[in-house]
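DOMAIN: structural biology
WANTED: fold as tokens
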Amino acid sequence: MIPAFEPQPVLLSGRHVRLEPLERRHRPALLAAAQDPGIFQWFLTPPLGDETEMSKWVEDGLQAQAAGTEVAWATVRMADDRVVGSTRFLDIRRANRGLEIGNTWLATEAQRTPINTEAKLLQLRYAFETLGAWRVQLKTDERNERSRAAIARIGAKFEGILRKYQARHDGFVRNTAMFSITAEDWPAVKAGLEAKLAR
């Protein structure tokens, strides 16, 4: 009997980063980490450096989590115990053992550090090794070259462009670049991420 595919808001800890299940108490620290609007250039939602937007974003995440459609985390840097961003499981498809890693953002000073690499390793390991996922997908705005390169560096396979796929907060309907990692890909992806972190 294959165990049920039920992603949960669990604590995921590594050497550089700790993913804490999102709670309302994280909101002030998240707001402080979100002050550079450039972080959210490609986001579907407005920049989160505004108290109202951040409150709405946190509440939306907690509601989706309660409904079983998302799992949300606060990203905490181990070195100084500071909240430096957030990430989620989205589009949880229980019958097909799939989910998406997305809604990920990091404070400017936490970018280009081991934090994102290790956070992805923790999320992917939980998805494939604990939950028994068949597929994990990641997607980004077609125009976001930096994000597309970062997703490819993780080891995810580019699957194509979904045209006119999502509306942004400003009314622009974006084309979305879709990537995936399957259970068969996971051993090689895991080895690659572990090698990056060892460097």
Strands lie at 12-13, 17-21, 71-77, 82-93, 98-106, 135-141, 157-167, 173-182.
